[in-house]
Amino acid sequence: MLKYLMLYEDRGIEIEYAESQYVWDSNGRKYLDMHTGHGVAFLGHRNPHIVNTIVDQMSKVMTLSTSFRVKIREEMLEVLSKVVPDRYEYVYLLNSGSEAVEFALKISRKVTGRKKIIYFTNSFHGRTFGALSVTANQKYRKGFEPLLPETMMLRYNDLSEIDKAVDEQTAAVILELIQGEGGINVASEEFVSELRRRTMDVGAILIIDEIQTGFGRTGSIWLSEQYGVYPDILLAGKAIGGGFPVSVIFMPHDIGVKIERGSHGSTYGGNPLACAAVKASTEVLINDSVPQKAYEKGNMFFELLRRELKDIRIVREIRGAGLMIGIDLRIEPTNIIKELQNEGILALKSGTTVLRLLPPYVITNIDIEYAVKVIARTIASQISS
């Protein structure tokens, strides 16, 4: 009998059913899901419109090389164009966030003819070799070195290093506006503005990784919109497929036109089911005003958390945007996550000391009020223990 290689910690429950903001285990117990598969189920588990669109496409064509045209791809592009800034003319679909990062790094070196790639402390961009080379945490890198050469790590939110480090030898700078795995650290407006200015000055490519922050979670379709910054390459994933594995890379004309056939490829990338998932997810995003709802519910969540947690001394800070929430603690949050699960709430960790909440946009006000009370009680209980 084969054994599944468990590369994530087993949470000790078997999930049998999922719908909207809830999942049920094999014992019939219901959980409020604020883990959402590391943020994938932002549009809710088994969103009916997304499921129906995928099932409809399955009855026609399930898999097809992008060498062949298919109607659903054109339909996806038409709808997706409504939520992407006008400067982006080219789009390419892959299967995971790491793959999108890999392609972005390849594009940067190909287009600029340079080698150096800059990333930041506490960054996380994936676990494949290229993505891992721009991921800061040593626990992910250990045992896999040497990684890509000519990468350079700078301090996140530190303006003092930018002018010296980002130079005429730099191919790309890759940045998360909120570091999802690294601690829900939020980039300052000054930091992002300086990176945009400097990359333009030296002709380097600015890659913004919105695989976790994008597609409505942070209260706007793209978090970069809130900064007034348009990167040279924009990466999306997780929520954009509504639960189907897909990632997207967006490029302007001056970059996309330089990518030759054969420069990259993917057996499954851009398959008809992925196109159907992205089309349907985008329609949900537009038709149900998802970013606005994430903004409003996020504001409520932050307000209640700050009120309920303000006197709990092991709470350092509450930060994030929209429905991407981090509670920075003075202790490691593993026990809190376990206790929350026992109370019927699924959450996850970010960085070393941050309790991370990634609820779907369909979470209700009643859910939020309940979750805040349980979270406050659970965190407070750790003081005496």
Commentary on this structure:
The strands form four sheets. Strands 4-12-11-10-7-5-6 form a seven-stranded mixed beta sheet. A four-stranded mixed beta sheet has the order 1-2-3-15. A four-stranded antiparallel beta sheet has the order 13-14-17-16, covered by helices on one side. The mean pLDDT is 97. By secondary structure, it is α/β, with parallel strands linked by helices. It has two domains: 15-46 and 289-384, Aspartate Aminotransferase, domain 1 (Alpha-Beta Complex), CATH 3.90.1150.10; 48-287, Type I PLP-dependent aspartate aminotransferase-like (Major domain) (Aspartate Aminotransferase, domain 2), CATH 3.40.640.10. The radius of gyration is 21 Å and the shape is globular. It has helices at residues 36-39, 48-58, 71-80, 97-112, 129-133, 138-141, 162-165, 189-202, 223-227, 253-256, 272-287, 290-309, 334-342, 365-384, and strands at residues 15-19, 22-25, 30-33, 88-94, 116-120, 151-154, 170-175, 178-179, 185-186, 205-209, 233-236, 247-252, 315-321, 324-329, 345-346, 348-350, 354-357. The relative contact order is 0.17. 37% of the residues lie in helices and 20% in strands.
